[in-house]
Write a structure and sequence with these properties.
- By secondary structure, the protein is of the alpha+beta class.
- It has helices at residues 14-21, 24-44, and strands at residues 128-138, 141-150, 159-163, 168-174, 181-183, 188-192, 202-210, 218-221, 224-225.
- Strands 5-6-3-8-9 form a 5-stranded antiparallel sheet, with no helix packed on it.
- It is rod-shaped and about 185 Å long.
C-alpha cells in the first residue's frame, strides 16, 4: 500500500460548471438584448403625425420636404432655412442697380448761313477839291470863302453845303463867274453852281454869316470834305 501512488484528482472548471448549473443566466441575457433591440426599433420607427393625410388612389405620392441638417459635434453651423415671403410684401432686391443708359444729345443745328446781297459800292467822290478859310471878322459876324477846284478832265457841276448851328446866312456869291442859287435856312448854307466848272479851273464861293462860330460844324462840296478846318 505504501508503494502505490494515488492519481491526482481532476476537478472540472469552475466557470463552465456555474454556467451549466445556472441556465437562467443565459435566458436573462437574451431577454435584455431583445428588450434593447425593441427599444431601438421603436425609436427609429415614426408613425404618421396629426397632419398626416393619406394620398388618394390614382395620385402619385408627394415627396417629403427635406429635413435641414443639424449642426454636427465638430462645430458646423446649421443651415438657415430660407425666409418665408410675407403676403403683400415683395422681398428687397440685393442686385446692384443697373447703370442708366445716357441718350446722346442730338447734334446742335448749324446756324443757317444766309448770304446777304452785296451792298452797292458808294459812288466815287466828285473830282472836286475844296478849301475853307475866314477872310474877315467883325462885330456880330464874319466873311468866309470856299475855294472850289475841278481836278478832273471834264466839266463838273457841284453843290456846296456849310453848316453853322444857331447862325444866320445873310448872303452868298461867286467871285467873277455867273452866279448859282443858294438857301440859308436854319444856319445851313446850300449853294448850287450855275454853269459847270471847267476842267482844271477853280472858283471862289464867299458868304456872310452872323451870330455863329467862324468854324462851321460841317463843310462839304459834292460829298468831299473841305480842307482847312
Amino acid at each position: 500500500m505504501s508503494g502505490m501512488r494515488r492519481a491526482p484528482r481532476q476537478f472540472p472548471p469552475h466557470g463552465s460548471t456555474a454556467v451549466a448549473s445556472s441556465p437562467w443566466i443565459l435566458v436573462s441575457i437574451g431577454v435584455v438584448i431583445m428588450v434593447v433591440l425593441l427599444i431601438i426599433a421603436a425609436g427609429a420607427y415614426r408613425g404618421p403625425g396629426p397632419d398626416f393625410q393619406p394620398v388618394p388612389p390614382g395620385q402619385p405620392p408627394v415627396a417629403a420636404a427635406p429635413i435641414p441638417e443639424r449642426a454636427s459635434s465638430a462645430g458646423r453651423e446649421a443651415s438657415v432655412p430660407p425666409s418665408l415671403a410675407v403676403p403683400g410684401l415683395s422681398p428687397r432686391r440685393t442686385d446692384p442697380p443697373s447703370p442708366t443708359a445716357t441718350t446722346p444729345a442730338p447734334p446742335a443745328a448749324e446756324p443757317s448761313r444766309t448770304t446777304a446781297p452785296p451792298s452797292p459800292a458808294p459812288p466815287p467822290p466828285a473830282p472836286i477839291d475844296a478849301r475853307y478859310q475866314v477872310l474877315q471878322t467883325f462885330q456880330g459876324g464874319f466873311i468866309a470863302e470856299v475855294l472850289i477846284r475841278n481836278t478832273s478832265r471834264s466839266d463838273q457841276e457841284w453843290v456846296a453845303r456849310v453848316e453853322y448851328p444857331g447862325g444866320r446866312v445873310v448872303t452868298a456869291w461867286l467871285e467873277g463867274v455867273p452866279q448859282g442859287t443858294f438857301s440859308g435856312a436854319g444856319g445851313t448854307l446850300t449853294y448850287r453852281s450855275g454853269p459847270e466848272l471847267a476842267a482844271g479851273s477853280s472858283v471862289y464861293l464867299r458868304f456872310h454869316i452872323e451870330s455863329a462860330d467862324p468854324r462851321p460844324a460841317s463843310c462839304r462840296v459834292s460829298g468831299r470834305a473841305c480842307r482847312g478846318l
